[in-house]
Each structure stands twice: as C-alpha cells, then as structure tokens.
Amino acid sequence: MDLIFGPVIVVSKFETEEEAIHLANDTTYGLAAAVFTNDAKQSMRVSGALEAGTVWVNSYALLHVQAPFGGFKQSGIGRELGTYGLEAYTQVKAVHHALDATM
Q: Out of the domains of life, which is the source (predicted)?
C-alpha cells in the first residue's frame, strides 16, 4: 500500500463541468479543492458536488479559525478548528433529573 503525505496537486484537462467533478472526486483523498470561475451559480454547483472537506472558490489555502478544517475519505480523521475541532476533546452525556419527584 502506497502512502502519500504532503501537498499534492492534480491538474487535468476536461470538457464539461460533470467531467471535472468526476475527475476531482475520482480519488481516495479529499482534504481540499479549489474552484476558479466567474460564474457564481457554477461555483455553488461545483463546490457542493466536490467530495472535499474544504473548497475554496477563486482563492486557495485561506483558513479561518472558526471554520472547521478536515478532509473526506482517507484525508484526515475528524475536524480541526472551530467548534467541530473541540468535539475530539469532549464526550456528550445526557442527565435527566425529575426535581419534583418524591421517593
């Protein structure tokens, strides 16, 4: 089994939007992707269809500490940053008290 660690970029020619999405999603990885277009509707369609934890539109590698960061598929284990990043350090418990009940 080959392991890849580090930044990897793939540049491919495509004819249609559907083909571009298929090429981008045809991988076992999905940390991040970028879409460059002047068409706002196209950017929404494509960014929604991409299997990546982060999708940048007309930019790349910009992060915000309140936005979760992590990948899909074999890229990453969970999320960092934002409130989603705190979930790795918490365990949820529900406790129900009947305060008006008598025993």
A: Eukaryota
pLDDT averaged per 10 residues in sequence order, the chain, 103 residues: 72 93 92 93 95 93 85 82 81 83 76
Q: At what angle do helices 40-49 and 17-25 cross, to 10 degrees?
A: 30
Q: What is the pTM of this model?
A: 0.72
- Cα–chain center distance at 72: 6
Torsion of CA 12, 26, 17, 60, to 10 degrees: -70
CA distances from 85 to 55, 77, 103 (A): 18, 11, 42
Widest Cα–Cα separation across the chain: 73
